[in-house]
Amino acid sequence: MPAADPRAAAPSSGANGPQAPPGSPSGSDRRLVAALAVTQTIGIGVATISVLLITYLIHLGHAPLPAASVAGLLGVLSVTGRLITTGLQRRLPAALIAAVIFALQAVAALLLPLIGASAAGAVGAVLLFGLGFGVGTIIKPHLLTERYGTTAYASLSGRLALPVTLAKAAAPAAALALAHTAGYGWVMIGVTLACLIAAVSLTLYHRLSFRQASNQ
Prior knowledge:
By secondary structure, this protein is mainly alpha-helical. The chain has nine helices and no strands. α2 packs antiparallel against α9, α3 packs across α8 and α5 runs antiparallel to α6. The radius of gyration is 22 Å and the shape is globular.
């Protein structure tokens, strides 16, 4: 009886060693996860506006009650923003839709110091910023699940959760300290930058994802 070929009995581990578990990011996929992680800066901007908006509107000259009423408008378009994101996913990539919405939030944060002293300007800027409320919450699970599946989602989401949670918790206090030392204008610049970084990172995520799909 011929001897068995030892190569046939040995399990194949691939040219590059043991294969990663299905759904685990490796190689260039790590750049996708990194880009997606950076998009969570939107949470810093949203947390800052949520906590400091009433105080900032009073600083701009609004009475406390009208300032609180205007701040309450943040949630008016939050559902609209989520519906727009969900509805357009059938025609456009979700990452690009969210990137546009985050860019609009950056515009709103930039305009608030310029037009926020008037009632109409404050309402318009707050409504525009509110369009992105909640979009950052739904876009991360969607993109992670879409690319890596539900099995890897819990692990990847957990890795992203701690630093994001800590940053969102610290952002309002840091923004308040900045407002007292340098002025609220610099706080709004910081919120604008946070929104822009999130928008650019989502655009980068889409380009990397599209490039990988084209090379397969």
